[in-house]
Amino acid sequence: MANHLQNESSPYLKQHQHNPVDWYPWGDEALSKAKAENKLLIVSIGYSACHWCHVMERESFENKEVAQVMNRHYISIKVDREERPDIDQVYMTAVQLMTNSGGWPLNCICLPDGRPVYGGTYFRPADWVNVLNQVQALWANEPETAIEYAEKLAQGITESETFRISKIPEKYSEDDLKEIVKPWQQTFDPIDGGYKRAPKFPLPNNWLFFLRYGHLANDADILEHTHFTLQHIAAGGLYDQVGGGFARYAVDGQWHIPHFEKMLYDNAQLISLYAEAYLQKPEPLYKRVVEETLQWVDREMTSAEGAFYSALDADSEGVEGKYYTFQQEEIDNLLGKDADLFISYFSITAAGNWPEEKTNVLKTRLDADKLAEQAGYSKEEWETYLKDIKKKIRHYREQRIRPGLDNKILTSWNAMMLKAYIDAYRTFNKKEYLTVAERNAHFILRKLITEEGTLLHQPQTPFKTITAFLDDYAFVIEAFIALYEVTFNKAWLDQAKSLADYTLAQFYDRQAGAFYYTSDLTEVLITRKFEIMDNVIPSSNSVMAHQLNKLGVIFEDSTYKEIAAQLLANVFPQIRTYGSAYSNWAIRLLEEVYGFHEIAITGPQSNDLRIAIDQKIYSPNKVILGGVEENLPLLRNRVTERSLIYVCKNNTCSLPVDNLKDVENLILKQEA
User: What is the pTM for the complete model shown?
Assistant: First the structure.
C-alpha cells in the first residue's frame, strides 16, 4: 500500500511512497495530526541525487522493524530539500548547531509544533532505532526537558544569521580587497589547483571572483592559479569527458574520482565561468567544455517545453558511478585501431585508474592535447576526431541502464541555466544558444509567473502550489536583465523591475537591511531566515545586491542603489573573515572599487556593436544598453541614424565613439 506521498510530484518523495514508513509530505495534515495525538515529528530531508539518502532508505526506511518504531511513536514527514529549501534551511541550521556538521540525509526529531530537539545526518539502522527509542522515552517521561531544549535551540536558529546595520563607507579601496584576498590565497593548492583540501568542490563563484579580481587588479599570480584550477577541473574525472557536464564534487584532492551526481545549478554556474574565462584567456579547452556541457543539457536535461530538469543520480543499478566508468578491454573492443590513442589520452589502465573499484574514470593530463600533435593531427583535425570518438563511446555507454533523472523544474535553477546559455552566447556568438535561452524565458513567463505577476517555485500541480523563495526572484531578475543585454528588448527589463519591486514589498526587512528568504505571505515556520552566506550557489541576498545595483544604474533609481549599497555595507565585515563563503559579495565589492560601466549603444548597428564588444573586450563590471528607441534614461536624446557608443561611469558619460579600440581605451581609463 502506498503511503501519503503517492500524490506528490517530486521524484524524491515518490521514491518513498511504498516504504513501510507511514510518510506524510510537509503540510497541515501531518502537523495537525502530531499536535492532536501529542506525537513527536520526524522530519527527514534529502534529494533525489543524494547517494546516502538512498542508502538510508534501503537500510532503514524499507525495513519493517524500523518502520514499526517510527509509525508507533512518531508522525514521519519526508521533505525534498530542493522543493522546500526554506524547511531545509531551518533544520540544517538546527543540526549544525547540535553537531557542528550537516549534510543529507538530514533527520530531525521535533516537538509536535515542529521545533527540533535532536538531529543528525545518516544513521545506521540500529543507531536510528536507538535514537528513536531514547527520544521517545524522554518525551514520555520528561516532556518539560525536551521543551526547554527545543526553546533554546529555536532561539539559536533565529540568531544564527543576524548582523548589524553598518554605515556605508564613503569609499571602498584596493586595500580592502587585498585584506580579503591575502589570507584566502594561502589556501590555494599549487599542485592540483583549487584549495588544499579533499573532497574538492568546484565552487564556481569563488573562481569567478578570482578571475575578475586578477584581471582588474592586474594580479598575475591570482590569474595564473585561477586558470590552473579551471584546467585541472576540466581535465579530471569531475568532468564527464565523454558526455559533458560536471559532477557535484571530487572525493579526492586531484579532481579525479567524482561523487557522480550531476546537478543543474553546478553546471549552469560552470558554463558561465568557463565562458567568461575564455574571454579573459581564449583556451580551446574552455570552449570545448562549454560546448559539450550545453550539448549534455540539451540532450539529457531539457523538457519538450524548453524547461530544464534538476539532476541526475550518482547511482545506476544500485552502484555509484557504474554508468560512467569503463574497463580497458571495453575500449579496446569498441575502438579497435583507435583504442591506443584514446587509452593514453584518457589515462586508462588495464587494472583501472580507480583502484578501489578496479575500473577507470576518464581523465586527461593538462598537456594531453600534445598527444594529438605527436600523432600528426592539426588542432582542427584533433577537435573533429575527439568529437567523433567521444560520440562513439557515448553511444556505447547509452546502452547501459541510466542513472535516475530528477525531472523537477525549479525556477531558480532554470534561471541560472538560462543565464548560462546567454553567457555562452555572448562569448561564442552561437545563435542557437540565444534561441534556447529565449525559449526557457518564455517558459518561465507561461508556467512560473502567476496572473498577478508573482513567481512560483516550480510549476503548479493539481495537488501542490509552492510560491517562490527569494532565490527564485533573484536569479530570474538576473537572467531577465542578461536577456535584455543581448536582445535590447526592454520587456525583459520591465519584467525584472516588476519582480524586484515585489521582493522589496514582500521580502525586505528595512530594520535588518536585508531580504528574508521567504515572503510575508508564505507559511510561517518556527523562524524566518535570511540567506547571507554564499555556498555552492550564491546567496539570494548577494544576488539581489548585484541586481538592484544594476537596475538602479539602468533606471537611474537611487532607491535600488541605496538598498544594494546598504546590503554590501552590512556584510562587508564578514567578507574579510571568510572570503570563500562571501565570494559573490566580494564580486560586488570589485564593482565598487574598480567601477561599474554603463555602455550605451545606439543606432541601427547597435546589436552588431554589442556582439563585438562582448566578444573582443573583457570588462566584467558592466551593463550594456542599446537599440534604436529612447526608452531608458541612458539612451535619451542619444539615438541617431549613426551608430554610436557611450561609456559611462558614476553618472558621467564619455563623448560618443564608434569603434572598439576607443571603447576599450575608455574602459581602461575609467578602471585605472
Answer: 0.95
